[in-house]
Design brief:
The chain is mostly helical. Helix content is 71%, strand content 0%.
Length: 182
């Protein structure tokens, strides 16, 4: 964590709303992008991204600086939130987050494997990866981060990140070949 990041964090922990707002502005787009590629819906990604920052604000008073970047902490919150989101969506009788918040009774009709949109195809293929592989692929291919940055963000070695990336790319390749999704 650099000095400016630490100063912002300590000011936000002390209740400085402007510092908390700066943290939000600095990291919102990265968190939103990460979540969007996990949930495939802009509305849901916006809501979940906001929840990440609400959780950040709620946990700031007890946050202990362990030398990791704030972004690493936010990615951890986002990853856990997405996992929780999918756990609640597993029941077919439950409305989606969008339907729940808007009060809509209409379900979105999606035919798996029917879309010709490359983004939809990529997101369908991503669903076949495990959580760590998804995390690495989004950070590496979508956000364009270096292996070193990813290793720092997820607290793994660069070799582990390369291994996760390699396995994920092989898995994606198999899905693409099998289903002709891209």
């Amino acid at each position: 964590m650099n000095l400016n990041e630490k100063a912002l964090l300590y000011r936000a922990q002390a209740g400085d709303r402007q510092a908390a707002g700066t943290l939000f502005e600095s990291y919102y787009q990265e968190i939103y992008t990460y979540i969007f590629y996990r949930v495939s819906d802009t509305f849901t990604a916006e809501i979940l991204s906001a929840v990440v920052f609400i959780r950040m604000l709620n946990r700031l008073p007890t946050y202990i600086d362990q030398g990791k970047s704030i972004l690493s902490w936010l990615y951890t919150i986002a990853r856990k939130l997405v996992i929780d989101y999918y756990r609640t969506q597993d029941g077919s009788d439950q409305p989606s987050l969008k339907e729940h918040l808007l009060g809509s009774n209409q379900r979105r009709q999606e035919e798996p494997g029917q879309s010709q949109d490359p983004l939809d195809s990529f997101q369908r293929a991503m669903r076949r990866l495990n959580e760590q592989q998804k995390h690495v692929i989004i950070l590496r291919l979508v956000e364009g981060r270096s292996v070193q940055d990813i290793a720092e963000l997820i607290n793994k070695s660069e070799g582990t990140v390369r291994s996760l990336q390699g396995r994920a790319l092989r898995s994606l390749g198999k899905v693409v070949e099998k289903e002709k999704v891209l």
